[in-house]
Amino acid sequence: MIHESDNAATDVLIDRLGDQMSREAERLGHDPLRTLLGGTLQALGPEPCTGPPPALGDREERRARIEAGVSMGTFASQRAAFECAKARGTARTYARIQAGVATGTHISPAASAWMAAQLDWPMDFAGNQEAFETFGTKGGSLPGVITEASYMVPRTGDHAGERRVVVVFANGMSGSAWLAGMGSFAHQSFAVRLASDAGFEARVRERMEAL
């Protein structure tokens, strides 16, 4: 689910642990959990998207949507449909989650340690082991949307030895910009530079504050 971005694995967990996960999500103040397949079927289905996708465990509705068929449509129509059907989050919320995982304070120390063990997959690569003391990340994409939420401790640069959290969320992207981003992974390079280069961080902050 984490290493390969396997959405089917996510839905298996939701189906098996649905009620328990829903109660925990409600306790933490999150929106109700929805199946990723349900949201995709709603976005690409024959009927216009008018509300949230099928809820947890609603297999019959998902089956009906599969039998009704899906339509890929144009990039613009996909982007609009997924804006309706998919869950939403903010960079600030995900920064808080990643900071909690990095410090062992998200949900509980045991939960944070388990999450870090999954999110630290970039440290399997020798180059990252040389550049970072720790590096955890999870990204995601939809038509017109690219996201990346990371925590890292650089070994070199202006912030060497410091724990840094960087979250990049972009939406409403044109087809050409989205395809370029998906092919270049520029958002990941941007996050790493932002975490390690104080001058670059200052320029980005200045530009963002001017918006």
What would the keywords be for this entry?
3 strands, 10 helices, 3-stranded antiparallel β-sheet, alpha+beta, single chain, 211 residues
Percent of residues in helices: 40-55%
Strand order of the largest sheet: 1-2-3
Question: Number of DSSP strands?
Answer: 3
Q: Which segments are poorly predicted (pLDDT under 50) over 5 or more consecutive residues? A: none
**SSE order, one letter for each helix or strand:** HHHHHHHEEEHHH
Describe the oligomeric state of these chains in a short phrase.
single chain
Mean pLDDT, rounded to whole units?
Answer: 88
Which range does the strand content fall in?
5-15%
Distance between the termini: 36 Å
Largest pleated sheet: 3 strands, antiparallel
Number of helices: 10
Task: Describe the protein in words.
The chain has 211 residues and is of the alpha+beta class. It has two domains: 79 residues, no CATH class; 120 residues, no CATH class. It has ten helices and three strands. It has a three-stranded antiparallel β-sheet with strand order 1-2-3, with helices on both faces. The chain is globular and about 55 Å long. The chain starts with 6 loop residues before the first helix and ends with a helix. The mean pLDDT is 88.
